Amino acid sequence: MTTAAALLLVAVGCSALGDDTGGARTGTTGTTDTAAPRVVVTTNILGDVVGELVGDQAEVVTLMPPGADPHSVEISAREAADLREADLVVANGLGLEEGLRQHVDSAAAAGVPVVEAGDLIEPLAYAEGDAEGEPDPHFWTDPARVLDVVDGLEHELATQVDGLDAGALEAAAASYRQQLVQLDADLEASFGAIPAERRALVTNHHVFGYLAERYGFRVVGAVLPSGTTLAAPSASDLAGLTEAIEEAGVATIFADASQPDRLVQVLADEADVEVDVVALHTESLSAPGGGAETYLEMMRSNGQLIATGLSP
Question: Do the domains 3-185 and 195-310 sit in the same CATH topology, yes or no?
Fold first, then answer.
């Protein structure tokens, strides 16, 4: 855990106040101190990044609880009000938060500044499946694009949120950039040990396009032939993927830890090869003790599991 994250946790008394939909409110004040600026963030991955940047200078309210699915997460009336009263709203965008889109739009219509991380990067398009040609919102699987997001968020926080110390914000952003650069280098070294012919990814839905481009993987396919977990595979989809798995000699299928892996297990059973199913935290951070409490921890954990699962 970084110094900024540690300060954030101490300031809130290491607490998260739940709501009736399972959402989590995290902040740097832990009180009713209305003088502290409030930044509301839709996903917990971005909530962690924003927390690293603002430290104890602002209250960060994260709408998505640990282990949730960003495609289907919903919020309470209170949380919707938080969005409309925020000093800044940070969203992922690119179609990720399907259940929150109307609330983010409502906040923008009410005059709240909204920054979408998808606008701060050069997005990839899905190469296959139901969403082929549409922008892929899962940019965080590439640390280099998270660097771009940090650059944009630093600017937005400095210009849109009153009361933040510019020097402290700049120092926190510089420190976090260094950690992202190190993460990128570590992942490249870890994945570099995987033979090229074994760098084939099969997941429960299309989530690793950016990681594949960054580190030289092939995306063989996904159980859900879509960029969203709200889709459903057909029998022909599963049959086609089974054939692709057999042809590619895939040894491991990766399922998101927040999603039931029944379909992945069915696919593994149908494939005429021995295939392991490994759970990763791909779209959400874990609860405390889950091994993926921060973005950096999540990526390092996933990197180790992928390298182990695909190594000879």
Answer: yes
Asked if 116 and 107 count as a contact pair (C-beta separation under 8 A), the reply is no
Determine the Cα–Cα distance for residues 106 and 79; give it in Å rounded to an integer. 12
Whether 14 has a pLDDT exceeding 80, the answer reads no
Among 64-68, 111-115, 160-164, 272-276, the minimum mean pLDDT is found in 272-276
* Residue among 140, 132, 160, 146 nearest 219 (CA): 132
User: Which superfamily is assigned to 195-310 in CATH?
Assistant: Nitrogenase molybdenum iron protein domain (3.40.50.1980)
Dist. CA 253–CA 269, nearest whole Å: 11
Q: How does 217-227 read in b/e, with b if 16+ C-beta sit within 10 Å? A: bebbbbbbbbb
> CA–CA separation, 149 vs 203, rounded Å?
25
Average pLDDT rounded to a whole number, residues 131-156:
96
Surface-to-core class of residue 297, CB atoms within 10 Å of its CB (0-12 exposed, 13-18 middle, 19+ buried): middle
| Domain spans of the chain, in order of start | 3-185, 195-310
Supply the pTM of this predicted model: 0.84
Name which residue leads in pLDDT, 66 or 242.
Answer: 66
Neighbours of 102 (CB within 10 A): 10
Radius of gyration of the chain (CA): 19
**C-alpha to C-alpha distance for 99 and 215, rounded to whole angstroms:** 31
Which tens digit of pLDDT belongs to each residue from 290-303? 999 999 999 999 99
Nearest to 70 by CA among 155, 17, 139: 139
Give the per-residue pLDDT at 151: 98
Q: How many CB atoms lie within 10 A of CB 192?
A: 12
Tell me the per-residue pLDDT of 182-230, one tens digit each, with 9 for 90 and over: 999 999 999 999 999 999 998 877 899 999 999 999 998 877 654 455 4
- Angle between helix axes 295-310 and 44-54 (nearest 10 degrees) is 130
Superfamily of domain 3-185: Nitrogenase molybdenum iron protein domain (3.40.50.1980)
